[in-house]
Write a structure and sequence with these properties.
Elements (H helix, E strand, L loop, with lengths): L26 E3 L2 E3 L5 E4 L2 H4 L8 H11 L12 H13 L4 E5 L2 H18 L7 E5 L8 H7 L2 H4 L9 E4 L4 H7 L4 E6 L2 E2 L5 E2 L2 H13 L3 E5 L24 E4 L10 E5 L20 H14 L2 H24 L4 E7 L2 E6 L3 H10 L2 E2 L1 E3 L3 E4 L7 H23 L1
Parallel strand pairs: 3-15, 5-6, 5-7, 7-10, 10-11
Antiparallel strand pairs: 1-2, 2-3, 4-12, 8-9, 11-12, 13-14, 14-17, 16-17
Helix pairs in contact: 2-9, 3-9, 10-12, 11-12
The structure holds pyridoxal-5'-phosphate (PLP).
């Protein structure tokens, strides 16, 4: 119902779509963030899995500065050598043959969804428009992205649902088998759900999903915006499963270490409908973004980076298992994959995040009453230890407040 009350004018003039912590930072270094007053926080949130190489990574700072003095922007009506280099590197490292660059994850998703429908249209099947997604998913905030994920609280009040989107229970292979058919254009999935609460899709199921899509001529889209680029201990999460490569994949977040850049990767076949004029972007893949993206991708693909992720993953797993044993009244379950870690809590996750903040530890929220740890992939062993200690303090604080 329309409200007739005088609208509330926000004191800070910021549209009130975020529930913001009363905290601001002035600078960052690695896994550390500092307020203007010089208070240090251990950052296990990393801009929501975005500053994967840490804050103010010196190599990226140098590259960004050098590019800033040469050329920022020209338009995609010209060749952009940085794009060609980064696209070649991404294709070399994956299933893909071609890449469209964007400024965000959402835009990469938008490209993927358009590409899937367009592929079938170009193949003489214009009625194949249905996109199947899974509950608990998050694919971004554009119209198509919210309907692809189907989260009711993200679509409510925004008019009639977009046609051709369907949401199934995450991991329910029988439901998928029943739903997939001649109208299905694509299945879209995060191999490890992020916002949904660090839920990993079973590896064997991923292989089955790939087979099922092939049997029905359906394109498989992975959203690896959060779980990709090394976070799970492989360059992409789908690599944990055998024979499970997608037709289309979206990446973003860590690709720019905080500089806005995303990409939609595709096989030549899946991308074949996207001819001149079907899609575009003003900023996507501009020289500034490509300079940072290239340098970041180089760092993300270094064997040392993956090794560090695996080492840190082991340390976290050990430390967190101990915490869960000692605080079963606080932590219900530990889940996720690699450095996309979820703690499903007994008590309210927002209260836990606030309590961790008091201990100078930054963590993210998540669906299903989870908190997520999404630290820099370069986090040191000492920092992992520190994170575990701060979490232990936080568990004590939560226990104390529950009994008082
Ligand atoms: C963050 C995220 C997106 C959206 O990316 P934006 O850059 O915010 O548009 C989409 N999918 C997943 C899995 C994400 O984590």
């Amino acid at each position: 119902m329309a409200s007739t009350a005088t609208p509330h004018v926000p004191e800070d003039h910021i549209l009130g779509v975020y529930n913001r912590a009363p905290l601001a930072f002035e600078r960052g270094e690695g896994a550390r963030l500092y307020t203007a007053e010089g208070e240090a926080y251990l950052d296990c949130l990393a801009g929501i899995a975005t500053t994967g190489l840490g804050h103010a990574n010196p190599k990226l700072v140098a590259v960004l500065k050098a590019q800033a003095e040469k050329l920022w922007h020209v338009s995609n009506i010209f060749r952009i050598p940085g794009q060609e280099k980064l696209a070649a590197a991404l294709c070399e490292a994956t299933f893909a043959d071609e890449v469209f660059f964007t400024n965000s994850g959402t835009e990469a998703i938008e490209c993927a969804l358009k590409m899937a429908r367009r592929y079938h249209w170009a193949n003489g099947e214009p009625d194949r428009i249905e996109v199947i997604g899974f509950d608990g998913a998050f694919h971004g905030r554009s119209y198509a992205a919210v309907f692809a994920a189907g989260n009711p609280s993200y679509v409510e009040g925004f008019g009639p649902p977009l046609p051709g989107f369907r949401t199934l229970p995450f991991g329910d292979h029988e439901a998928l088998k029943a739903a997939i058919g001649p109208e299905t254009a694509a299945v879209i999935l995060e191999p490890v759900q992020g916002e949904g609460g660090a839920r990993a899709f079973p590896e064997a199921r991923l292989t089955e999903l790939r087979k099922l899509c092939d049997e029905h001529g359906v394109l498989l889209i992975y959203d690896e915006i959060q779980c990709g680029l090394g976070r799970t201990g492989k360059l992409f999460a789908y690599e944990w499963a055998s024979d499970a490569a997608p037709d289309i994949m979206c990446v973003a977040k860590a690709l720019g270490d905080g500089f806005p850049v995303g990409a939609c990767l595709a096989t030549a076949r899946a991308g074949s409908g996207m001819v001149v004029g079907t899609h575009g972007s003003t900023y996507g893949g501009n020289p500034l973004a490509m300079a940072v993206g290239l340098a970041a991708f180089e760092e993300l693909t270094r064997p040392e980076t993956v090794e560090n992720v695996r080492r840190a993953t082991g340390r976290f797993a050990q430390g967190l298992a101990g915490l869960k044993d000692r605080y079963p009244d606080v932590i219900e379950e530990i889940r996720g994959k690699g450095l996309l870690i979820g703690l499903k809590l007994v008590s309210n996750n927002r209260a836990f995040m606030a309590a961790a903040r008091e201990r100078r530890l930054l963590i993210a929220g998540g669906g299903d009453n989870c908190v997520r740890l999404l630290p820099s992939l370069l986090i040191t062993e000492a920092e992992v230890q520190e994170a575990i200690e701060k979490l232990e303090r936080t568990c004590e604080d939560i226990r104390a407040s529950a009994s008082s």
